[in-house]
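Regression report. Comparing outputs from two consecutive submissions.

Submission 1:
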Amino acid sequence: MNEILPIILYVIGAIAVVGLSIPVLLKSRKSSKNYSTTRGSNDPPASVAVEERTDSAPAATATAPVDAPPLDESDVAVDVPDDASGLETIQVDTPSPVAGRLARLRERLSKSNNMLGKGLLALLSSDKIDEDVWDEVEETLLLADLGTEPTMALVDALRERVRILGSRDPQQVKAMLREELIKLVDPTMDRSLTTTRHDGNPAVMMVVGVNGVGKTTTVGKLARVLVAEDKDVVLGAADTFRAAAAEQLATWGARVGVPTVKSDVDGADPASVAFEAVKAGIEGEVDVVMVDTAGRLQNKVGLMDELGKVKRVIEKLATVDEVLLVLDATTGQNGLTQAKVFSEVVNITGIVLTKLDGTAKGGIVVAIQKTLGVPVKLIGLGEGPDDLAVFEAESFVDALLN
């Protein structure tokens, strides 16, 4: 019996060892099968991007680093279809025609600005026009941001014409007021945009202004205006400081089939981006290159100097034909201060007045033109993609007077 006991214990021990080894081996096999997709914290970084496939989407091409575990061929599909079926496509818009755009938006403009026009008409059509009435006329014009000098000139002209006319007929008064306002807005100023190739190069536009006035949106909307006129356009995303500014501009361009030159590096040199955009426009023989710049406060000397640098770098390749200053109409007289400083750094050729639909201060058009001697060329009248209109003096005054 004593001789049999060791044999029995040996057999029992052997069975125990075999029994314990079975789940361990099974577990190891299971781990081995999933090793290519389950990675520990100490494993090399995975460089394999595996997209979930659908019937219409192309399969992803998988690549693996040299030191990565071998891939199970059954887990990754490497076939690439010959066609591009199933890829996302961007629907290209057809911008609305430019001709008559301001006329179509006149109702919106008249509703937002009729305090000026209707207020003046009510005062001038009263039975008795005395000094108190003229004081109210003057106050109305000043509140509309017409500016002191233009206001005095308009009041003096109206005084004289009312005295000579000797009538309070509303139609006569309205016609008189319309004529004087048109003189102030000055329809003789050249409001055309340079959008034609010259000297073998595209026309180049820079869009400048302070933060928050809508420069990038203005560039996108202006691209739609140019596309509606059958112009070939390239956009340059030289606003490299504001997060997502380049993507925002590229989205505007893609909507109308216009390419955008941008940097993938945050904080890239804006002058370099502008240079590459103009270079691409020259090589592509396009009609217009528009360069969006970063917003900057007019009292920041370094930023303003950088704006001058962007312009100088562009001019190594082509002439800068237009420098459009974007101003927010709701800022009133503060916009004049901005305009003066920008005009000292770069040669402003035109004003884009945005958010004019949200203010009763239509007189800012006159004040800016009188201060800078630069015409308002475009006005923004809403949030819609085609709510940017070429400025027309007579249509603008007619909208003010409803």
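Submission 2:
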Amino acid sequence: MSDAGLLNQLIESLRRLPGLGPKSAQRMAFHLLERDRDAGRELARVMAAAMERIGRCERCRTLTEHARCALCSSARRDPSLLCIVEQPSDIVAIEQATDYAGLYFVLGGRLSPLDGIGPEELGLDRLAARFHEPELEEAILAISPTVEGLATAHYIGELARDSRLRLSRIAHGVPLGGELEFVDGGTLAHAFAGRQGL
């Protein structure tokens, strides 16, 4: 039955999206096919265009339709600050939650030799070149505090050693409004070790 085959292909394709299990993918497929085929066609059209036209910014490696993204092209951004993040979605989170006005560099992951992710895959040679730009004064590491994240941060610290820039890392620890009894031991230990004077 070819119809069931195509339906199964649609469901399996939707399951590839993060956070979608088999039931959610099935529900989405049936919704599009039974109730909103126009939305399904629009989704397919936009997705095809996005896959074709969106690439990486030549300067910061975020996702963009142009050679340089809007942030790298903006004269309003502070070129003395460079925030190093893992993914383009981290830029969105920082832009929405803070008043940071500097530039970014997207690694695209963390060092993980077992997964075949080394310095080349993260563009660390390009990052090292940016460390020597005359206007750059501070690089801020906004990398997850996982084992791979800490290894990546250490590697980047070694790259920055020969430059004159200040290297900092965003704080990690107890979330604002969090209660100590509900914070996991590793987070609490990290927050305690990184305590600051009042």
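Expected: both submissions complete independently.
Actual: both completed, but the second showed a warning that disappeared on reload.
Relevant detail on submission 2: The first helix runs from residue 2 to 15.
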